[in-house]
Design brief:
Helix content is 5%, strand content 43%. By secondary structure, it is mainly beta. The chain has an 18-stranded mixed sheet that branches. A 16-stranded mixed sheet has the order 7-12-14-16-18-20-22-24-26-28-30-32-34-39-36-37. Residues 60-120 form the Rhamnogalacturonase A/B/Epimerase-like pectate lyase domain.
Length: 542
């Protein structure tokens, strides 16, 4: 037996006899020395304990051999650390560094994984700088270095009560250079999945304070209830956040996507405006979205109806506040059965993007019974190629305190607000088309109707609503215009008809509007007509 003297281990006895073998592992190295080190917090009420007890509070990725040097394959080390954290019920800390992975990291149990935040950029003196050509030296970076064909996922989460926070995820996208560019890798950075019909696994997943830098797909939750996605920043290539088949509340907040966190190359930005969606929601109940901002992205928020799998349907009872979509093609893109209520919405559309930009676009592909119900309050829209708001083939919308500053930049006759077969109710609308293009404020076709109050920007004769149709066999047209209630003095309608199949439109008569129908005659049988409703007072109440 060997003797080892340890000073000040006890207030009454400054020595202890132990077996040295008790401190040795199989390789002959001393690994259990932390049992002999006593620690105590300096504040009142603190008690003494060993360093071993302190170490047991959480695990570090470095404990399992992870290097974080950007070149070593840390996949096995990180997976071992995650597995141990789940088994021991501890948190896993990933210190600052760049951890290269070459396949998925499976999180199949309850676990908290956290790092040191995003990377800082520092110059040779160690000071932070905005020069992105300098070396990244701070922050926890998970560098997912593989193709989707090798593994489609980065973090693969099937565990309950999982939290991933305070780190950054990068993909090995090719250098955009100065020419054309398409993404070279297509994995999903964080994929959380729960087995259908079960209340265990993949529930209550939280992703917080994560930077998604050049990732193809960011965060994808499927069958996950009670998800929380908060403080997500980044430049994504295809989709930032996607949620589908969630039967319980999902909270998405404080999102900033599309900015040039990775590259400002024109080829990358052009790809984003043509392909990227910031947030995509399928069959989701009660989603709550707050403080959402996107820049240079095709679609800000897309809602659609899921038609396959064990849970079908659209977005139900979405509540949103403070949405800003800057330089977009579509701010809100709503497909089929969606229930959406948003307050404080701003959208600035990109002109001439290759797709006619519409700030709020709702359409139906599934037929009767799959219409959108939309409520918008405190809205500011501008810069649209086509309509600012377009409610196509069904649905209802209530618009309150809406300002539309420019639309129809293509000068192709697009109205500010259009509905084909739905109904729009307006409670306060202020319009000002600052472009040189003249265009209607409203346009309805088929059975679409509009009612409410509008407040244009001047007192001049103003084109309000345009109806299109076909004259009957006698050359007449009876238009049910949907304008209801007391009609302010000055509302009039003028109808034009087409004298030949390819001929120009010829005016019929102009008459004041009374009631909810108006009749014109003098057209050509079975050829097209166009009826335009106009007014001169500044305020029109319907």
């Amino acid at each position: 037996m060997s003797l080892l003297r340890v000073n000040q281990l006890s207030p009454t006895d400054d020595s202890v006899v132990i077996e040295v073998a008790d401190l040795l592992d199989k390789s002959g190295l001393i690994t259990n020395g932390d049992k002999l080190i006593g620690i105590k917090n300096n504040y009142a009420g603190a008690v003494s304990r060993t360093q071993e007890s302190k170490n047991d509070e959480s695990l570090s990725a470095l404990d399992f051999g992870a290097k974080g040097d950007g070149s070593t394959d840390d996949t096995s080390a990180l997976q071992a650390a995650i597995t141990a954290a789940i088994a021991q019920g501890r948190s896993l800390y990933i210190p600052f560094g760049k951890y290269r992975t070459t396949s998925r990291l499976v999180v199949d149990g309850s676990c908290i994984i956290y790092g040191d935040g995003w990377q800082d950029v520092r110059d040779y003196t160690g000071a932070t700088t905005r020069d992105w050509t300098k070396q990244f030296t701070r922050g926890t970076i998970i560098y997912q270095d593989y193709l989707a064909s090798a593994d489609a996922y980065g973090f693969y989460v099937t565990g309950n009560s999982v939290s991933i926070s305070d780190l950054e995820i990068e993909h090995n996208q090719g250098n955009p250079g100065s020419g054309s560019w398409t993404p070279s890798v297509t994995p999903t950075a964080i994929y959380a999945y729960a087995q259908p019909y079960y209340e265990h696994g993949g529930q209550s997943v939280m992703v917080e304070n994560v930077m998604l830098r050049n990732v193809y797909r960011g965060i994808y939750l499927i069958n996950v209830a009670r998800g929380v996605i908060d403080r997500i920043f980044g430049q994504v290539i295809n989709t930032g956040i996607s949620v589908d088949r969630s039967g319980d509340v999902v909270r998405i907040s404080n999102i900033h996507l599309g900015w040039t966190f990775w590259s400002s190359a024109s080829a990358v930005m052009n790809y984003q405006i043509a392909n990227t969606t910031a947030i995509q929601l399928g069959r989701v109940d009660n989603p709550q979205l707050y403080n959402i901002f996107t820049f240079g992205i095709k679609v800000g928020i897309q809602c659609y109806t899921e038609t396959t799998g064990h849970m079908t349907g659209g977005v139900s009872r979405l509540h949103g506040t403070n949405f800003g979509f800057d330089d977009c093609v579509y701010g809100l893109l709503l497909q089929d059965a969606c229930e959406v209520s948003v307050s404080n919405l701003y959208a600035y559309c990109r002109a001439n993007s290759g797709t006619n930009s519409v700030a709020v676009y709702s359409f139906n592909t599934l037929g009767s019974g799959y219409n959108t119900t939309l409520q918008l309050t405190n809205v500011d829209l501008m810069g649209c190629d086509a309509n600012a708001i377009y409610l196509a083939n069904g649905g209802t919308a209530t618009l309150s305190n809406v300002r539309i500053r420019s639309w129809n930049s293509l000068n192709s006759g697009y109205a500010a607000i259009r509905t084909d077969s739905g109904h729009i109710t307006i409670n306060g609308l202020d319009t000002n088309n600052s472009s040189s293009n003249s265009a209607d404020v409203f346009q309805t076709t088929s059975t679409g109707t509009i009612s409410g109050q509008v407040n244009p920007s001047n007192d001049a004769l103003f084109s309000l609503v345009t109806f299109y149709g076909t004259c009957d066999s006698s050359g007449s047209a009876v238009i049910t215009h949907g304008i209801s209630g007391a009609v302010t003095k000055g509302l009039m309608a003028q109808c034009f008809y087409r004298a030949a199949t390819d001929g120009a439109m010829t005016p019929m008569t102009t008459q004041y509007v009374n009631g909810t129908q108006i009749a014109f005659s003098g057209g050509v049988a079975n050829l097209a007509y166009r009826a335009t409703f106009m007014y001169s007072p500044k305020i029109l109440s319907w």
